[in-house]
């Protein structure tokens, strides 16, 4: 049994090649603009619009814009649903090991069932529970921030003739 299991770890494919330098530069600029604008909007509106998972969202939205995980439905839906779940876990069970574990694990299942899988959103329950967030967190930063990120990705990714974003909406 152990030997058969260990054979699963044999490498069967090579790692994908690195993207062209222009793709990487474009990805860097997109993320730079997105995070900068969100921070500026936060300061101007005097309301938090930035959470750590948005950094990982930028990796997908600008680095892998063709990925199903980077589509608007996944970014907005994934962040919104996992935030709701995180808030429910926190307000029903508090900051406990089991609320953290249930928040993340149930978020995975919920995103799969709703076809909104967005890996960065899986961190939302942790952020919400560990910070003791209130229900307003759902609107700001989660909803507003994710919508702003998608809007920037829509504008920026379509400036290049080599990119088309999104691949699908629903």
UniProtKB/TrEMBL annotation:
Record flagged with keyword Cytoplasm: no
Q: Which PANTHER family match?
A: TRANSMEMBRANE PROTEIN DDB_G0269096-RELATED
Question: So where does this one cross the membrane?
Answer: 21-40, 46-64, 76-93, 135-156
Keyword presence, Cytoplasm: no
| Top-rank taxon | Bacteria
Residue span(s) of domain HPP transmembrane region: 18-166
Q: Which Pfam families match?
A: TM_HPP (PF04982)
Q: Per its record, how is this protein called by name?
A: HPP family protein
Alphabetically ordered keywords of this record? Membrane, Transmembrane, Transmembrane helix
InterPro entries per the UniProt record, alphabetical: HPP (IPR007065), TM_HPP (IPR058581)
């Amino acid at each position: 049994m152990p030997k058969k299991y260990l054979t699963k770890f044999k490498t069967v494919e090579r790692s994908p090649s690195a993207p062209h330098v222009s793709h990487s530069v474009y990805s860097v600029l997109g993320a730079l603009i997105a995070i900068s604008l969100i921070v500026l909007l936060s300061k101007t509106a005097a309301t938090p619009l930035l959470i750590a998972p948005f950094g990982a969202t930028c990796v997908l939205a600008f680095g892998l814009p063709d990925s199903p995980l980077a589509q608007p439905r996944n970014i907005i839906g994934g962040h919104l649903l996992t935030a709701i779940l995180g808030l429910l876990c926190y307000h029903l069970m508090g900051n406990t090991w089991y609320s953290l574990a249930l928040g993340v694990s149930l978020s995975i299942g919920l995103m799969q069932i709703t076809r909104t899988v967005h890996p960065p959103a899986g961190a939302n329950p942790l952020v919400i529970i560990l910070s003791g967030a209130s229900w307003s967190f759902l609107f700001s930063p989660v909803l507003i921030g994710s919508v702003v990120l998608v809007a920037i990705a829509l504008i920026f990714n379509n400036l290049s003739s080599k990119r088309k974003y999104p691949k699908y909406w629903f």
